[in-house]
Amino acid sequence: PYVVTEPCIKCKYTDCVDVCPVDCFTEGENFLAINPDECIDCGACVPECPTEAIFEETEVPEKWAEYVELNAKLAGTWPVITEKKDALPEAEEFKDVEDKRAMLSE
Ligand code: SF4
Ligand code: F3S
């Protein structure tokens, strides 16, 4: 499956949601998580993300390895999101900020 990683935190542009054919994105306060049991590995969401936060599981950069498990865990409790909505107000400000892990609202 594909995995949402750190750059999404505090941005949540949601462009990814619009193209997913199987509606496997789930929504938290400031991050989205992909349900690994639903993702069909189409890759359509990858080029849509303005922060380049989405990777195929085996291509997730080492520094973000924990996001593989994290997507599965969070997607198990968060509601499904099927339509694009406005990005978070602070999205532009946090788009290129690094080390956002502690800012993730789980
Ligand atoms: Fe949805 Fe395809 Fe992205 Fe998986 S890879 S989350 S199925 S758009
Ligand atoms: Fe997040 Fe990128 Fe989707 S910022 S909400 S993974 S478009």
Describe the structure.
- There is one protein chain.
- The chain is 17% helix and 11% strand.
- It has helices at 15-19, 67-75, 91-94, and strands at residues 2-4, 25-27, 32-34, 54-56.
- The chain is globular, with a radius of gyration of 12 Å.
- Strand 2 and strand 3 form a beta hairpin.
- The strands form two sheets. A two-stranded antiparallel sheet has the order 1-4. It has a two-stranded antiparallel sheet with strand order 2-3.
- The longest helix is centred in the last third of the chain and has 9 residues, at 67-75.
- It has a single domain (2-89), classed as Alpha-Beta Plaits, CATH 3.30.70.20.
- The chain is built from three helices and four strands.
- The two termini are 21 Å apart.
- By secondary structure, it is α+β, with helices and mostly antiparallel strands.
- The mean pLDDT is 98.
